[in-house]
Amino acid sequence: MKKLVVGNLKMNLLTVAERDRYLESFQRDFEKKAKNSAEIVLCPPAVHLEKFVETLAQENIFVGAQNIFWEERGSFTGEISSLMVKNIGCKYAIIGHSERRKYFAESNEDINAKIKSALKDNLIPIVCIGESQTERKNGETAEVIMAQLNQSLSDVPISKITEIVFAYEPIWAVGSDAIPTSDEILEVKITIRKLLVEKYGASAAEKVRILYGGSVNSKNVAQVCVEPQMDGVLVGRESLIPNEFLKIVSLIG
Ligand code: 13P
Q1: Residue-level pLDDT at 253
Q2: Residue extents of the structural domains in the chain
Q3: For the chain, how are helix, strand and coil distributed in percent, rounded to 5?
Q4: Residue bearing the CA closest to ligand 1, atom 9
Q5: What is the pLDDT of residue 34?
Q6: What is the pLDDT of residues 117-141, one digit of tens each?
Q7: What pLDDT score was predicted for residue 33?
Q8: What are the DSSP calls for 46-95, one per residue?
């Protein structure tokens, strides 16, 4: 299975000029560096999705949304449906990022509805799960992960589970420069895999890709991805610097 490197550009690239500079340097550095390695997914703000698809999408580079809504169309001011994202040429959508859980009060039930909507429209959901600092200190990591998984996978059938990508993103590691040890990441990966085996059986569970996210950079990618044998990474800040992002791609690809 090809490794997957996802860039979450968050709420950045504020002008057309800034976006175009980013795209130009990404293309230039990609030609030099990252050919034939991992699968790349870039998730820009929604206003840039179309341009990213037009400019970058190719055999090894895909575009994803940072969020979707579960209704297909209608009176939902400000929302963007999974079908709209799919129709503009995206392949992926991040669902349940900790920043959406925190600032927009997204619940596991909301995340479940978004996952089902994405799957219905043939978008691959990248579902973020992870514990807070307090939960970690209290030794509740496995419990939190299992509750997030159980609730967000409600009514997701076995025929669809292998399409979902999970990203273990400990909340305390996002935007902080703190990272778990590779043993801690491996332990969470095993927890996720075990739950998937129980729910869907071994042969489906082993096909599900599990990524790590939270303060990933080219210096720590061996610790957070290679050593715990993750299927890839979800990168925030470093994805804003094409050269650095592509360095991560070439190190794990
Ligand atoms: P950082 O890589 O900036 O910590 O962000 C991680 C993240 O939230 C990716 O979704």
Answers
A1: 81
A2: 4-252
A3: 50, 15, 35
A4: 236
A5: 55
A6: 999 999 999 999 999 999 999 999 9
A7: 73
A8: GGGHHHHHHHH-BTTEEEEES--BSS-SSS-TT--BHHHHHHTT--EEEE
Selection from 139, 135, 110 nearest residue 125 by Cα: 110
Distance 74 CA to ligand 1 centre (A): 32
Topology classification of domain 4-252: TIM Barrel (3.20.20)
Q: Which residues of the chain have pLDDT under 70?
A: 34-36
Q: How many CA atoms lie less than 13 Å away from 211 in the CB half-sphere?
A: 29
Chain centroid to CA 2: how far? 15
pLDDT in tens, 189-211: 999 999 999 999 999 999 999 99
d(CA 228, CA 234): 15
Strand partners, 209: 165
Query: What percentage of the chain reaches a pLDDT higher than 90?
Result: 95
The catalytic site residues sit at 97, 169
Ligand 1 contact via 8 beta carbon (within 6 Å)? yes
Q: What rounded mean pLDDT belongs to the chain?
A: 96
Cβ 216 under 6 angstroms from ligand 1: yes
List the structure tokens of 65.
Answer: 């949304």
- For a substitution probing ligand 1, which of 166, 176, 234 has the most ligand atoms within 8 Å of its CB? 234
> Which pLDDT does position 26 carry in this prediction?
97
CA of 213 to the centre of ligand 1 (A): 6
Is the beta carbon of 41 within 6 A of some atom in ligand 1? no
Atom index in ligand 1 nearest the CA of residue 97 equals 10
